């Protein structure tokens, strides 16, 4: 009895993936379903507009560096530092 339950569990996990994980399901540019894993059924992966990582949030809060280049123009790098300077200027 235990062996049959164990075998069925392995078959279920093998067919449907790990418990608690589903596939994205969005259509790729080739027209095939995306095979990226997501936490819950119905969600999309980060490629298709699903959950965003923390780095995306910090990029939204980034501002242009207030430093000056050697040519005297304003630096075009982005920064999230409190002093308003990028990694090159401080």
Strand adjacency order, main sheet: 1-2
Shape: elongated
What proportion strand?
A: 5-15%
Q: Share of helix among residues?
A: 10-25%
Ends: how far apart? 67 Å
Q: What class, by secondary structure content?
A: alpha+beta
Radius of gyration computed on alpha carbons = 23 Å
Compute the average pLDDT.
76
User: What is the count of distinct domains?
Assistant: 2
Order of helices and strands: HEEHEE
What is the count of β-strands?
Answer: 4
Please outline what is shown here:
The chain is α+β, with helices and mostly antiparallel strands and 90 residues long. The protein has helices spanning 2-16, 54-60, and strands spanning 22-23, 37-38, 63-64, 78-79.
Task: Describe the fold and architecture.
- The protein is built from two helices and four strands.
- The model has no long low-confidence stretch (mean pLDDT 76).
- Helices cover 24% and strands 9% of the residues.
- The chain is elongated and about 75 Å long.
- It has two domains: 1-51, no CATH class; 53-90, no CATH class.
- By secondary structure, it is an alpha+beta fold.
- It starts with a helix and ends in an 11-residue tail after the last strand.
- It has helices spanning 2-16, 54-60, and strands spanning 22-23, 37-38, 63-64, 78-79.
- The strands form two sheets. A two-stranded antiparallel ribbon has the order 1-2.
Describe the protein's topology.
Elements: H1 2-16, E1 22-23, E2 37-38, H2 54-60, E3 63-64, E4 78-79
Antiparallel strand pairs: 1-2, 3-4
């Amino acid at each position: 009895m235990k062996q049959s339950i164990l075998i069925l569990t392995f078959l279920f996990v093998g067919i449907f993936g790990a418990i608690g994980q589903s596939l994205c399901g969005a259509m790729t540019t080739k027209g095939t379903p995306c095979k990226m894993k997501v936490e819950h059924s119905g969600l999309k992966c980060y490629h298709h507009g699903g959950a965003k990582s923390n780095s995306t949030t910090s990029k939204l809060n980034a501002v242009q560096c207030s430093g000056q280049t050697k040519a005297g123009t304003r630096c075009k790098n982005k920064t999230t530092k409190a002093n308003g300077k990028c990694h090159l200027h401080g």
